[in-house]
Amino acid sequence: MPELPEVEALAAFLRERAIGHQIQRIEVSAISALKTYDPPVSAAAGQPVAGASRHGKFLDLHVGTDLHLVVHLARAGWLHYRDAFPSAGLLKPGKGPIAVRVRLDDGSGFDLTEAGTQKKLAAYFVTDPRLVPGVAKLGPDALSVDLAGFDRAIRSRRGQLKGIITDQSTLSGVGNAYSDEILHAAKLSPFAMSDRLSEEAMGRLYEATQKVLTDAVSRSVGQKAATLKSEKRSGLAVHARTGLPCPVCGDTVREVSFADSSLQYCPTCQTGGKPLADRRLSKLVR
Ligand SMILES: [Zn+2]
Q1: What is the CA 75 to chain-centroid distance, rounded?
Q2: pTM value surpassing 0.70
Q3: Cα–Cα dist 198/269, whole Å
Q4: What is the DSSP string of 166-215?
Q5: Alpha-carbon torsion 166, 171, 174, 179, what sign?
Q6: Which of 40, 156, 174, 272 is least buried, going by the fewest C-beta atoms within 10 A?
């Protein structure tokens, strides 16, 4: 799933490539992906792209003076920029991976696609991004929040750090991959409790969040949309690296699986050398 650094890079790419161009039209192929109906997407025709920005993991294309195409790419969604489209015809509504197509006046544009059968990509055409429910409830941005705001956000809820820092209403922008990286860099267990963190540990968590995300943004921005995914993989220390050596200490990266996700961590760096129990298993044993 694209997280803060990838969405930031996509916004930067759109700012460089699309600003100033007029939108010829927005086509919606997957009707279920478009969550709004007023204003209609036809209102974008003839309007210039005025900007592109990010709210947490939401991408925001600014259209004319007061319209926004806000997109949540979800787990398998992506943006594909096209210098030219294969045909001038309208997209056929149906089962393909293309959910939304934005055509610009120079013949270029982009497709928002979603692989797989679970369709979670969500697009909103609105007069104000705050009208998007997921945007309205976002917590402070993980990359622009200061230490005091970060401390407040993390301690506002009691729970395990992995869940707390990926909860978008607590802290926005961090998902499954970068939370593994941040907790590894901070040398904290994913199961450490938010309300029991010392001030020193909170400082480490904050510094790690800033460093991991800043590094990822600087690696990602300037990459074309097409190469962003492999760039993300190449920069990871523990996420999706189960069984491989930790780049810091050489211990073997381990995994805890959940019903529909998993987390990776290094025992030596993060849990005093002790492997974490698989929680599903230990529930059965108890
Ligand atoms: Zn390690």
Answers
A1: 9
A2: yes
A3: 18
A4: H-TTTSBS--HHHHHHHHHHTT--TT-BGGG--HHHHHHHHHHHHHHHHH
A5: negative
A6: 272
Q: Measured in angstroms, how far is the CA atom of residue 147 from the centroid of ligand 1? A: 25
Q: What DSSP character marks residue 48?
A: B
- Cα 252 to ligand 1 centre (Å): 8
223-271 tens-digit pLDDT? 777 788 777 778 899 999 999 999 999 999 999 998 888 999 999 999 9
Distance 249 CA to ligand 1 centre (A): 4
Q: Tens digits of per-residue pLDDT, 189-208?
A: 999 999 999 999 999 999 99
| Cα distance between the two ends of the chain | 34
Protein residues with C-beta less than 5 angstroms from the ion ligand 1: 246, 248-249, 251, 266, 268-269
Contact, 13 vs 226, CB < 8 A?
Answer: no
Determine the distance separating the centroid of ligand 1 and the alpha carbon of 183, expressed in angstroms.
11
Positions in the chain short of pLDDT 70: 279-286
Q: Is 22 helix (H, G, I), strand (E, B) or coil?
A: strand
Residue 13 has, within 13 A of its CA and on its CB side, a CA count of 24
- Return the ∠ at Cα 120 (arms to 223 and 229), rounded to 5°: 20
Rounded to the nearest whole angstrom, what is the distance from the C-alpha of residue 212 to the centroid of ligand 1? 16
pLDDT value, residue 253: 97
DSSP 94-161: SSSSEEEEEEETTS-EEEEEE-SS----EEEEESSGGGSHHHHT--SBTTT--HHHHHHHHHTS-SBH
Nearest residue to 2 via CA among 76, 55, 53, 64:
76
